[in-house]
Amino acid sequence: MAGVSDYFSIGSTVACKTCYDKEIEGEVLAFDQQTKMLILKCPSSCGRASLNDVHIVNLSLVSDVQVKKEVSPTMSEPPQSLNLQRLNTRVRNQIEEKKRMVKALQAGVSPQGQKLFIAISKTINEITWDGPNIVVWDKVTIIPPYKIENVQGNSDDKAFTHIKKVVEKHMRDTAAAESQQKDQPSQSQQQAQKGNSTQ
Fold it and tell me: Does residue 63 share a domain with residue 108?
C-alpha cells in the first residue's frame, strides 16, 4: 500500500485504487485511524452539481493511496458538531413510527389501511391505531375498508373535511398508480413481443 498516511486531514483530496481496480478520488470527510476507514466525498455519479457520492473505503483493502492535495488541520475548518437533540428526536420518531406499524400488523390491518396510514402520517403526526381503525387528531376515525365513506367524525369540523380530502387524494393516487402498472406490459410480455417481431 504505497503512500498510506497515518492520518488524513479533513478537506484533503485523496485518490486510491480499490481491490477491484476501481479508482476513487475525493475530499476527506472523515478518517478513523484505528479501523483504517476513510470516507471520501466525490462528485455525483449522476452528474448533478448539488449532489455528491460518498465512498467508505477500507484502507486495508486498497492497492494504492495518494494524497493529491494536503490540507493542514489549522487551515481546515473544524468539523461541525452534531445536533444530538435533533438526532435523538429523529430516532424517537422513527421508533414510534415502527411501533405504530407493528401495532397495525398485530391488529391484522390490510395493506390498503397500512398505506393510507403511512400517507397520512407523512403530513400529520397525531395519528394512531385503535385496533384496525385509524384515528387522526383524536377527532376523525377511518374504519376498514379505508374508503372516503369510511371517514367518521363531526362533518362540520375542519379536521373531518381535511382528512376526507387526504383520503380522497390517496385513493386517486393509488388508482392512478395501479392503472399505470396495468398499462405497462410486463418484461416477459415485452420480450415475447420482441421475439414475435423478429420471427
Answer: no
